[in-house]
């Protein structure tokens, strides 16, 4: 099936165009991303979860962002995506057997499969096949966004989209996405008690670095800006060599056009990660992703979820729980993930917390850009290499080499990263915490 055939199907589905207008935003029931235990919410869910927001007119569309914007489509940008048939994918997944299923989310199931290699017709490669269920327009929109985004971007820290399938059969329109297979699951999995082997500290630093590289690319290194909008640990997957890659771009949005400050959208994302100003106003900027990244850094430091209802009431919200421990350097080790068993350089953890606090400044304009965040994390990783090489969770894997990042922009001196300046945390970190009930 060629691109014109794909576009015809998308027109039939009435979801081939993405707009800066709010009227095209999804309004469907609550969903959960694949491999995630966190609730992904939309505007209606936000109003239920944050009753105090009912007085806020989140649906107002800013006059600054009425201009329509859309992702570069497959017909506008060169793409190497392969087009699959339903028959091919049925064969590869044993007719979508539960024995081949490796994940299940709000918009469908994910299966592990073997397909023919494009480079070597006699060889096969492992892939992950996401089959979208028939749950309304939201699933259609996520599918199209994934194709449009991953079809035109390429970076070592973004999961590669191998191809797609959009075909009519006896079951109706089949929409599937085929990704490179990521054998080491998600970062969320390895931080949870479900993982038998916790991630060592050096590997957590490397994951923080990889994730920052991916976001920097999306925000600053292309002709257009992409805002992830659902950055979280379950959307960061690990490949065979434990490189971290961002995945699940179904909620991504094109950044504001030149001269505009933000994009007005319906509020979607994951509770515990979403930036407070975005929750209040629906105004989306790249700094919303920066906030989510800051939350993720505390997740790496503590091994805790941003929101965990299974913990005591005063420990359920991660950002509220850590705050009292940041004013006193002697108390700071108490928030470190106990599964690390003390095997971490304390100064390294302190410095990573400082970076997190820079990302969690209440006013979005005061937060650093991701290229600046990346440079700060690079410095921490470089400093940590003097104390030893990163240890991988599995003995059979080779140690990753440290690579210098030449793409970081807007270099600055990071005087804040001197060890022992924990008291500085409480002076700079004053985020308006989300009221999640």
Automatic annotation (TrEMBL):
The keyword Transferase applies. It is found in: Cell membrane. Residues 52-75 are annotated as: Disordered. Pfam families: PK_Tyr_Ser-Thr. It comes from the Eukaryota. Keywords: ATP-binding, Cell membrane, Kinase, Membrane, Nucleotide-binding, Phosphoprotein, Plant defense, Transferase. Its EC number is 2.7.11.1. Residues 96-381 form the Protein kinase domain. Its main location: membrane. GO terms for cellular component: plasma membrane. GO terms for biological process: defense response; pattern recognition receptor signaling pathway; regulation of salicylic acid biosynthetic process. One of its GO terms (molecular function) is ATP binding. It is a peripheral membrane protein. It catalyses: L-seryl-[protein] + ATP = O-phospho-L-seryl-[protein] + ADP + H(+); L-threonyl-[protein] + ATP = O-phospho-L-threonyl-[protein] + ADP + H(+). InterPro entries: Kinase-like_dom_sf (IPR011009), Plant_Ser_Thr_Prot_Kinase (IPR050823), Prot_kinase_dom (IPR000719), Protein_kinase_ATP_BS (IPR017441), Ser-Thr/Tyr_kinase_cat_dom (IPR001245). ATP binds at residue 130. Interacts with FLS2. Belongs to the protein kinase superfamily. Ser/Thr protein kinase family. This is non-specific serine/threonine protein kinase.
């Amino acid at each position: 099936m060629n691109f014109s055939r794909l576009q015809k199907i998308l027109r039939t589905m009435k979801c081939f165009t993405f707009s800066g207008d709010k009227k095209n935003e999804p309004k469907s029931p609550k969903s959960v991303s694949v491999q995630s235990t966190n609730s992904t919410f939309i505007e209606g869910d936000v109003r239920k979860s944050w009753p105090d927001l009912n007085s806020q007119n989140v649906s107002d569309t800013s006059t600054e962002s009425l201009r329509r914007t859309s992702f570069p489509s497959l017909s506008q940008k060169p793409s190497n995506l392969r087009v699959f048939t339903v028959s091919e994918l049925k064969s590869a997944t044993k007719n979508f057997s539960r024995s081949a299923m490796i994940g299940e989310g709000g918009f469908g199931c994910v299966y592990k499969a073997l397909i023919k290699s494009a480079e070597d017709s006699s060889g096969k490669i492992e892939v992950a096949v996401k089959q979208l269920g028939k749950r309304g327009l939201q699933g259609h929109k996520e599918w199209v966004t994934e194709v449009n985004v991953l079809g035109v971007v390429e970076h070592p820290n973004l999961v590669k989209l191998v191809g797609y399938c959009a075909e009519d059969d006896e079951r109706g329109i089949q929409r599937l996405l085929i990704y490179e297979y990521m054998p080491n699951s998600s970062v969320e999995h390895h931080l949870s008690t479900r993982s038998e082997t916790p991630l060592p500290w050096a590997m957590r630093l490397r994951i923080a670095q990889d994730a920052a590289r991916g976001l920097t690319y999306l925000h600053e290194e292309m002709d257009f800006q992409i805002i992830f909008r659902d950055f979280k640990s379950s959307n960061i997957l690990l490949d065979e060599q434990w490189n971290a890659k961002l995945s699940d771009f179904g909620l991504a949005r094109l950044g504001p056009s030149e001269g505009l400050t933000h994009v007005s959208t319906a509020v979607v994302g994951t509770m515990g990660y979403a930036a407070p100003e975005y929750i209040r106003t629906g105004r989306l900027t790249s700094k919303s992703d920066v906030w989510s990244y800051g939350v993720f850094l505390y997740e790496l430091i503590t091994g805790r979820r941003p929101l965990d209802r299974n913990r005591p009431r005063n420990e359920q919200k991660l950002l509220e729980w850590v705050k009292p421990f940041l004013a006193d350097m002697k108390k700071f080790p108490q928030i470190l993930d106990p599964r690390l068993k003390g095997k971490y350089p304390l100064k390294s953890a302190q410095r990573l917390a400082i970076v997190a606090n820079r990302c969690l400044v209440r006013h979005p304009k005061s937060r650093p850009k991701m290229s600046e965040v990346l440079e700060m994390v690079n410095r921490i990783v470089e400093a940590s290499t003097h104390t030893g090489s990163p240890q991988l969770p599995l003995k059979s894997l080779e140690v990753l080499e440290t690579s210098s990042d030449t793409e970081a922009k807007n270099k600055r001196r990071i005087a804040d990263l001197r060890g022992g300046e924990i008291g500085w945390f409480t002076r700079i970190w004053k985020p308006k915490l989300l009221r999640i009930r």
